[in-house]
Amino acid sequence: MLELTGVDVTVSGLKILDGVSMKVPAGSITGLIGPNGAGKTTAFNVVSGFVRANSGTVTFKGKSINHVKTHQLAKLGISRTLQAVGLFPTLTVLENVMLGATSRNKAGILSESLALPWVDKEQRVIRQKSVEILRRFTLDSVMDAMPGELPYPTQKKVALARALVSEPDLLLLDEPAGGVGAEEIRELSALLQQLTPECTVLLVEHHMELVMEVCDLIWVLDAGKIIASGTPAQIRSNQDVLTAYLGEAEVS
Amino acid sequence: MLHIHNLTVSYGQVVALSEVSLEAPRGCVTAVIGANGAGKSTLMRAVAGLIIPKSGQVTFDGSDLVGVATDERVRRGLVLVPEGRSTIAEFTIEENLRLGGLWRSRFHQRESIAGVFDLFPALAKRHKMLASTLSGGERQQLAIGRALMAEPTCLLLDEPSLGLAPLIVQQILELAQQLAIEKNLAILLVEQNAVTALRVARTGIVLNLGEVVLHGPAQQIAANKDLRHAYLGY
Amino acid sequence: MRSRLSSHAFICIGAWLVLMLVNNAIEPLMSYYLALVAMYATAMFGMVILVGLSGQVSLGNGAIMAVGAYVFALSYQHWNAVISMVLAGMAGVVFGLLLGIVGARLRGPYLAGLTLAFAVGIPAIANRFPSILGGEDGLKVPAPNTSIAEVIQAPTYDESSLDQFLTDPSSAGVAPDPTSTVQTFDTSPLDPGSFALEHWQASVAIAVACIVGFVALNLVRGRQGLAWRAVRDDPVAASVVGISPATTKVTAFVVSSLFAALAGGVFAQILSFVGPGAFGLKLSLALLVGVVLGGRTSLVGALIGAVIVVWLPELVGSLGNGWNDQVSNNVPNLVYGLLVVAVVVFAPSGITGLVTQLRSFRQR
Amino acid sequence: MNQFLDFSLGGIANGAVIALMALALVLVWRSSRVVNFAQVGQAMFTTFISLWIYEVSGSWLLALLIAICAGAILGLVVHLLVMKPVRRADASGAIIATFGVLIALQAAAGMIWGGDPKAFVPPVANSGLEFAGRIWPVSWYDLLIFAVTSVLVLALSYVFTRTSFGLAMRASALNPEVARISGVRVSRMLILGWAMAGSVGAIAGVLIAPSATLSPNSFDLLLVFAFTAAVIGGLDSLVGAVAFGVGTGLVLSLVTGYSDASNAPIVSLVLLVVILLMKPDGFFSQSKSRVV
Q1: Is residue C22 part of a domain?
Q2: Whole-angstrom Cα distance, residue A113 to residue C103?
Q3: Residue C208 lies in a domain
Q4: What whole-number distance in Å separates Cα of residue D238 and Cα of residue D30?
């Protein structure tokens, strides 16, 4: 589904990613873990077009997406969440989710400016879809609320709903469990398992319980290099990973 | 050292903290744990003077802190390390550190910087580089280092583990314990990561929906299964 | 749910009919004020989109109005008013595109400063080419003469043709075609011959404002409006959901410039003259003041702002009575300045925002 | 060639004043992340006050000192009454408010002193110096402007980069909360920043008045030029503001000399567009746009 081959990223003389090659198989939940500053977020940003690789290739469904701009990815079927939630504060929850389907819009600004009937219809369909997904996330009661009024874990759920409304083929999740409670993490874990295999998931996360539970495959990044990969069981017993990242106490 | 008595904070209609009382003695870590939205950060910000409580008292070193501005609290030795690795990205590491103790004499500043660099050798190596070049864990170290520049007697650590790798979390929390013992600091630690926090703390306080539901020795709380299920979710 | 097309068309045609009736019933002087309000409203609809929704504080729209006005005046020397308005609109789109491509890359204060330079620089161009643009003296825009009279003779008017015009994307997307403004003549109960110039100017201004208002309503209340607000709130998150921040910002410039240029064309007709003096920094500031006072993100706010900008000088002018000219001439600007500061400090969402706040307060 | 030299020297003198005004913009930007478009309005107002003092007392130095104090007070008033209450989150509101202050100040000045341009007498001869057998387009007055500008820039640069006060001020601007929890009195820093900027702007106003005339709107163009200089310099950099202030003066003087004065605003616009297209944050800017 997604493949990075020999990706190098250098920012002001510092090598942040050093020949990173990794694969995200179709239909899997793949985890990317590693210490802070290892380059996880940078790897994510390379895939989503915020950062350009100095060398190496990123391919999605066999096609290179090295030079694709961030806003074009949604159209290709890649959707992502942001670490800082990134909801639009002056838009309602429903409007936020509706914008998630932007890539499905066909109407241009000319037909928009005349509010032609088919534009209207298209918008009603998107609205319907957004309401449905909010209902599925049991968020329909806060549909008209402003994101700022909601507790942080709920905001994260809205952001996830927004990422899913476009029905992506690949979902990039940036620390979905950061700052949310144990209850929500259980919910999240169940949801992720439901998503596959229709939707492939790439997950950056520090919450090891979640990663170990849901991931089919884990890549470990340290100091810009991939140091290990494998199933959760393999990662758990990998000595390099223990010293670089997990620490003895976490495993025991 | 630090006494909080019946502290109540509300945002408009919403009550974020309700009659919270606790104390943080010198020489040990006092951990405040609880799920998200329990009011932990609100507590820290109120103690630091960044938000004004509706009622209740905070006394530090025997004197009441009502009406004392944040910067004055810092000068008296009550220093907050806020959530989210707050450093000034456009400043060099050294400038970030100097900022923490600007009102002190140059001599004292130099001495404290040397002390921080002893504690965090990774920072010393790059003291002329911008803080934006640091990793998350190093930035957290820098934030703690900046707080130490003020020669605090009481340190407020707000979620130092947020977004950090398990290994770094362990190091940072162990450092907090070490600082409390070696420098005889009072450390009030707010954490979501209850397991690790209770491991380094002497006393634990469980906060739920703005109220203290439990107050006791950290080891007891960690051992209490029912409680863990009810409030900490593991 | 009624479709947006029909409800918005209903609002605009209704507003147009009411305003035309009012226009026919009032004194020529009042008609002149009405024309000014409609003209300012046209430009301020664009400011709501640019400043309010897309969050780009621009002082350039006064300069774009100058572009529209000059293009109208030049073209009017050869062709009729309709063609001239279309050309003015097209010029607005081109300049909006240019300004937008530079401006969309900039953060707040940089953009404000760039457009400030634009507002000061563009009118200065008129002085550089006195042979074409008339220098300080400007260009005359003759009152409607035979060429208009011929169009007035066009006998038929029916509402469906307006409707059809509105739904026809080919003609309206680029520049609302003001044919209908001329057609309005036939609905006038007055004999065209006795129709005062001010009434005619007002009917042009009203028609343009209604058409522009229709387009603005569709955009603001549609997905484009959401996209503008999204990019203003958080460009990174916007690009993640598939909205291009750059394109969206430029679009706001283009649309608001189109509106501004059309307003400029109308202004040229109201003044019967185009000169650099009328399009200075003051005009740009007035547009900004208007939308801020009315409410930055609301089209109704733009209407209120337009009324304030036209009426406030008259209203507070009388306050200065009894003082010398030196004082009374400056009273309106002093009030403007202080009002803007007060609104930004105490009611950032302007008069419309204040009204909604009061209403929700009473409901509690 | 001689002509070129003359234009250049004259331009550098004008540029020094633009530089001072740009410096005032940078000071406010550094202390509160706001571009104060009312800065020239404040300067115009204090220059009127200083003209009045000069007419009453006959002392130019006293007039300058009063202008400096008035500038500081006016800066303080604008900060406390207008900018401080504006919500920090409302970035466009802050920009708009500065324009509101500009409009109000110009109207107030018009009410008090009238719209007619007034002449401002320079304290020292403002005619070309004779040296090496020819008259140069540089006067004692121009040299005074140079001296004042250089001293101010050096002093301010020293304060900002070398002293604790400068560090505290920069921290307050970049991240008020972090500054506060580090023991910095942020509100005091803001007040000082606005007052300092007001004073620097007031000096610029008094210095430029003799080479132009003084009326409520006479500094509008100066705002555009000063903004151009400050932005090209990156808004953050004192040295950048001064260097590009002088540069802008030079370019404008050459344009005016070789073609026509009315080209100056157009050239300033073109300059701004070209530079901002190449460098959206100007040169010397510290703050880079952050991703995610």
Answers
A1: yes
A2: 23
A3: yes
A4: 10
**Residues D106-153: tens digit of each pLDDT:** 989 988 888 788 888 777 766 766 666 677 777 788 888 888 888 988
In this structure, of A11-25, C164-178, D16-30, D166-180, the range with the lowest mean pLDDT score is C164-178
Task: Name the packing angle between helices C81-103 and D264-278 (round to 10°).
Answer: 50
Distance CA A111, CA C22 (A): 32
Q: Which H or E run contains A60?
A: strand A55-60
Q: Can you name the residues that pair with A225 across neighbouring β-strands?
A: A222
Using left for φ > 0, alpha for ψ between -120 and 50, and beta otherwise, residue A182 falls in alpha
- Residue D252 to residue C352: CA distance in whole angstroms: 44
| Closest approach of B210 to chain D, Cα-based (Å) | 24
- Chain B CB contacts of A35 under 8 Å are 135, 137, 165, 167-168
Residues 257-316 of C with CB under 8 A from D: 281, 285, 288-289, 292, 296
Of D177, D182, D287, the CB nearest to B99: D182
**Which pLDDT does position A108 carry in this prediction?**
77
Could you tell me which of B186, B135, B136 has the C-alpha nearest to residue B157? Answer: B186
Give me the residue spans of the domains in chain D: 2-123+136-218
Q: Is C171 inside any structural domain?
A: yes
Contact D183 B100 (CB under 8 A): yes
Mean pLDDT of chain B: 85
Q: Is the pLDDT of residue D211 over 70?
A: yes
Q: Which residue, chain included where needed, has tokens 């992720």?
A: A192
Strand partners, B15: B10
Helix (H, G, I), strand (E, B) or coil at C241: coil
| Better pLDDT: C192 or B57 | B57
**pLDDT over 70 (residue D17):** yes
* Closest in A88, A115, A119 to C230, CB measured: A88
Per-residue confidence (pLDDT) for residue B229, from 0 to 100: 65
Residue D126 CA to residue D138 CA, distance in Å, equals: 8
Collect all residues of chain A within an 8 Å Cβ-Cβ radius of residue D292: 41, 45, 50, 82-84
**Which residue's structure tokens are 């500009």?**
D102
How would you classify residue D114: left for phi > 0, otherwise alpha for psi between -120 and 50, otherwise beta? left
d(CA A159, CA A147): 10
C327 assigned to some structural domain:
no
What is the per-residue DSSP string for B133-198?
A: GS-HHHHHHHHHHHHHTT--SEEEEE-TTTT--HHHHHHHHHHHHHHHHHTT-EEEEEES-HHHHH
Q: What angle do CA B18, B22, B25 make, to 5 degrees?
A: 160
Residue D275 corresponds to which tokens in the numbers above? 């530079």
Using alpha carbons, list the distances in angstroms from residue C33 to C26, C36, D1. 11, 5, 57
Q: Do chains B and C touch (3 or more CB pairs under 8 A)?
A: no
- Mean pLDDT across D77-103: 84
- CA-to-CA distance for B17 and B54, rounded, in angstroms? 10
> From the list A50, A71, A79, which residue is nearest C243 (CB)?
A71
Q: Is A27 exposed, middle or buried (0-12, 13-18, 19+ CB in 10 A)?
A: middle
Q: C40-55: per-residue pLDDT in tens?
A: 999 999 999 999 899 8
C155 lies in which domain range? 2-279
3-class secondary structure, B35: coil
Give the dihedral sign, CA A98/A103/A105/A110. Answer: positive
Q: What structural domains and CATH numbers belong to chain A?
A: 1-77+168-252 (3.40.50.300), 87-167 (no CATH)
Complex ipTM tops 0.90: no
A82 contacts chain D (CB < 8 A): yes
Q: Is D288 left (phi over 0), alpha (psi -120 to 50) or beta?
A: beta
What residue in D sits closest to C98 (Cα-Cα)? D273
